[in-house]
Amino acid sequence: EFRHLNLNLNSGKGRMDYPSGSYYEGQWEGGMREGNGTMYWANERYSGSWHQGKQHGEGEHVWLESAQREGFVNNRYKGQFERAAKHGHGMLTSCCMLTCCRTERTVGWS
Known about the structure:
This protein is mainly β. The protein is built from no helices and nine strands.
């Protein structure tokens, strides 16, 4: 069951809860995530710009414990997105135990 809070005619500011337990809080346009908002999943979070329901523009995506299978406790990408993919300039930070590694890249993130 989806729950809309303060969501008037699928446009404006509001929250949607998904059956998986994930939820989105932020701006909507035509029933889609549009503008600024934050999506919360079980082990990750994206906060930033949205366009036509996808991560697009400036934002920050953080992956938590789910990434432990690769030996990382926390991965974070802060930068540009295009149609839900890392695109353009951004900073990727990966932390394992007490050590963090930063990688700064421009374009070619696909």
